[in-house]
């Protein structure tokens, strides 16, 4: 069959088939540019080299006892992204399940996850060995920095898997409560790849760059599989750094990058327009962003200073792990109208699915679509959607009611032009005296104050009302007082939405994707679950 992006998705049903197809079609093209723990520097591998290394690593894993259906944990930071990618494909070659592990876990968290997963082996970076020992792991440990995945072993035949078999278990980010294990099939993972093509705007010859950690769904799924489906180059950053990130974009002539909102703010704050103009971003075509909501002034600034000044597309991305990843995006052509329509719920997350087959609806509890201005639950339909929450039938039934749609748990609304607006996590709505308060709305109002750099709004227990509103603020210079911010809100919000308490912190707690972990701020990890 001759299917090939952008004409149509290919015929592949599994991740190994997708890799083999790209070796056949663009085998000598650069697949990956990434940090390596073996070389201590940056490596560049073609699709053929990546597949060959994965075949060798599969033999190593097989010798360690890994077989079909086994789980293999990958506990590697982006400083070993090259080895993580090899391990990812090696695991699938054996018919096993890849489980990226959060490199920010402490021993207690890691012990819980590993007890749940029960891995046959764990591929890890050297600095995680003490943590693994502290977590009392009962699995074969393979340190990738020693070149173990490149050791000489008799080759093993690839195990045949089907599209319905589990490819990966990805843990949700845990921004609200205890993370769940999301099972993603091979067929769904291939679909995720073709959807990533649409989100990142990549094609054969593109160069896509991202700092997303491997353990996130963005790092190990949307990025990895999107670039694999496109047959393009994936540049993995060891971490975000304003200067290094911009230098890397110039050096590798990136055509598309994913920089979350807080990162864009750092770039604009730490580099002057003249310094940014000195870079050669002539190859750059698209800047994707998303994550924490921000102010209208911020969005207008990135539209002016990045979109227009750099001459690139701006695309706001919304997706979630359970979607596999499927999602919705605010495309560049829609930005001007969306900026004019900004209101209480901030900037629209878009009205365009990652690909034409991704369905997006905002629904009432009876599954009927809402009218413009009405709040409902954002639902997605896509072949990439998870097959289940592992060992959690009740949660699976809530999220996947059986009509082909995924209930995201995110509350949203629409307007008369079809734009979708994120309102809040359904479970994260602050319920005060029978009234619902959107933390996103309150955060948006506070972010308009010049003295607020960052803010997270969370519930504060109230014995009478159930909850009050609490704002946790990272202040700008000069810093405002708590009373000043409360007065600011009094003038702009209904009385029940005004924070009863304002606290100041040096920084907000964040997970690997730089999203605020609100459960830490409440002192109750399940308060927003």
TrEMBL record:
The keyword RNA-binding does not apply. GO terms for molecular function: medium-chain fatty acid-CoA ligase activity. Keywords: Ligase. Residues 441-511 form the AMP-binding enzyme C-terminal domain. Residues 21-389 form the AMP-dependent synthetase/ligase domain. GO terms for biological process: fatty acid metabolic process. Belongs to the ATP-dependent AMP-binding enzyme family. This is Long-chain-fatty-acid--CoA ligase. It comes from Pseudonocardia sulfidoxydans NBRC 16205. The lineage of its organism: Bacteria, Bacillati, Actinomycetota, Actinomycetes, Pseudonocardiales.
């Amino acid at each position: 069959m001759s299917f090939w992006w952008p004409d149509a998705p290919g015929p592949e049903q599994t991740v190994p088939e997708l890799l083999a197809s790209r070796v056949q079609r663009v085998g000598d093209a650069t697949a990956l540019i990434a940090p390596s723990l073996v070389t201590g520097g940056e490596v560049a591998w073609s699709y053929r080299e990546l597949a060959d290394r994965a075949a060798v690593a599969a033999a190593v894993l097989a010798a360690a006892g890994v077989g079909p259906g086994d789980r293999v944990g990958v506990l590697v930071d982006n400083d070993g992204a090259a080895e993580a990618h090899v391990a990812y494909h090696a695991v699938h070659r054996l018919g096993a399940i890849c489980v990226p592990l959060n490199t920010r876990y402490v021993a207690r968290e890691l012990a819980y996850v590993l007890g749940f997963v029960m891995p046959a082996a764990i591929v890890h970076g050297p600095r995680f060995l003490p943590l693994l020992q502290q977590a009392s792991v009962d699995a074969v440990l393979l340190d990738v920095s020693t070149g173990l995945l490149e050791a000489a072993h008799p080759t093993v035949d690839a195990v045949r898997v089907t599209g319905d078999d589990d490819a990966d278990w990805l843990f949700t980010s845990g921004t609200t409560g205890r993370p769940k294990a999301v099972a993603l099939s091979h067929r769904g993972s291939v679909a995720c790849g073709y959807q990533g093509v649409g989100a990142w705007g990549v094609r054969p010859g593109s160069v896509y760059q991202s700092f997303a950690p491997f353990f996130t769904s963005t790092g190990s799924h949307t990025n990895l599989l999107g670039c694999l489906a496109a047959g393009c180059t994936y540049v993995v950053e060891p971490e975000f750094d304003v200067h290094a990130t911009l230098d890397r974009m110039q050096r590798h002539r990136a055509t598309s990058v994913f920089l979350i909102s807080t990162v864009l703010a750092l770039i604009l704050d730490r580099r002057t327009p003249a310094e940014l103009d000195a870079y050669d971003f002539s190859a750059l075509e698209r800047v994707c962003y998303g994550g924490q909501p921000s102010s209208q002034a911020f969005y207008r600034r990135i539209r002016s200073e990045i979109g227009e000044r750099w001459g690139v597309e701006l695309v706001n991305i919304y997706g979630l792990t359970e979607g596999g990843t499927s999602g919705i995006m605010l495309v560049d052509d829609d930005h001007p109208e969306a900026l004019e329509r900004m209101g209480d719920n901030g900037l629209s997350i878009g009205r365009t699915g990652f690909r034409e087959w991704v369905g997006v609806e905002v629904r009432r509890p009876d599954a009927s679509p809402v009218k413009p201005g009405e709040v409902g639950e954002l639902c997605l339909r896509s072949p990439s959607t998870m097959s289940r929450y592992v060992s959690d039938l009740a949660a699976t039934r809530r999220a996947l009611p059986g009509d082909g749609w995924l209930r995201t748990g995110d509350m949203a609304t629409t307007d008369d032009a079809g734009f979708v607006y994120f309102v809040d996590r359904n479970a994260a709505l602050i319920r005060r005296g029978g009234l619902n308060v959107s933390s996103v709305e309150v955060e948006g109002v506070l972010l308009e104050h010049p003295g607020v750099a960052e803010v997270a709004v969370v519930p504060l227990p109230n014995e009478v009302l159930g909850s009050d509103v609490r704002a946790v603020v990272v202040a700008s210079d000069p810093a405002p007082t708590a009373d000043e911010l409360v007065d600011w809100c009094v003038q702009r919000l209904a009385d029940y939405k005004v924070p009863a308490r304002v606290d100041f912190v040096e920084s907000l707690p964040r997970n690997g994707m730089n999203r605020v972990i609100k459960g830490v701020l409440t002192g109750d990890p399940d308060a927003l679950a």
